[in-house]
From TrEMBL:
It comes from the Bacteria. This is LysM peptidoglycan-binding domain-containing protein. SMART domains: LysM (SM00257). It holds the Pfam family LysM. The lineage of its organism: Bacteria, Bacillati, Actinomycetota, Actinomycetes, Mycobacteriales.
Length: 214
């Protein structure tokens, strides 16, 4: 999922990264995606392609997941979506300063359930992690996660696919696997704040920007 954006007066890549991702330091993702050599130079009227990256939010003192669900979704009862996306076992406890992923529930795609599908299988297919099935079940008001009706139309929450680095993995290899283009490794590096794309660690969790329609 890629957003087309036209630069207006006063824009900077950092401001755009803050607006789209909740994290100004992710501006290199936009720069790399648009082949911008100098991220300090963009021009009014320039057309940019902005890859989808799950919004980040830095928890502040007094925040609760219920409050954040109300702010981002207009529904405090959807707090388990944020908890699941961040592997928070106790949703009543979040530490100030922690960076949280906020899945997108608004402008998202849909999926029609076919025979044999389960929430765990869909979570693995969409997000790379079967344990993320609550991200799907809560927005779709599924009370029995072990049962899906064939033909039911589900909203597909926006959340970047993730991958835990294994021995032998390289960013180029992962880019080829996930995007069919090894040269897309630089976007993975930018999205995960990796200064040296030749150096990744076993066990490191990587998030892959959505380049659909790129």
């Amino acid at each position: 999922m890629v957003t087309e954006y036209e630069v207006v007066a006063g824009d900077t890549l950092s401001k755009l990264a803050q607006a789209f991702y909740g994290d100004a330091t992710l501006f290199p993702v936009i720069a790399v995606a648009n082949h911008i050599a100098d991220p300090d130079v963009i021009t009014v009227g320039q057309e940019l392609l902005v890859p989808y990256i799950t919004r980040r939010y830095t928890a502040a003192h007094g925040d609760t997941l219920s409050k954040l669900a109300q702010v981002f979704y207009g529904d405090a009862t959807l707090f388990p979506v944020i908890a699941a996306a961040n592997h928070i076992a106790d949703p009543s406890v979040i530490e100030a300063g922690r960076s949280l992923l906020i899945p997108e529930l608004g402008n998202v795609g849909h999926h029609t359930v076919v025979a044999g599908e389960t929430l765990s299988e869909l979570a693995r297919r969409w997000y790379g992690d079967a344990s993320l099935c609550p991200v799907i079940s809560y927005p779709n008001h599924i009370t029995d996660p072990d049962h899906l009706d064939v033909g039911r139309v589900l909203i597909r929450p926006g959340l970047n696919r993730r991958h835990t680095v294994a021995p032998g993995d390289t960013l180029r290899g992962l880019a080829q696997l996930h995007y069919g283009n090894a040269d897309a490794f630089s976007i993975i590096a930018a999205a995960n704040h990796i200064p040296d794309p030749d150096t990744i660690s076993v066990g490191q969790v990587l998030h892959f920007p959505d380049l659909t329609n790129f």
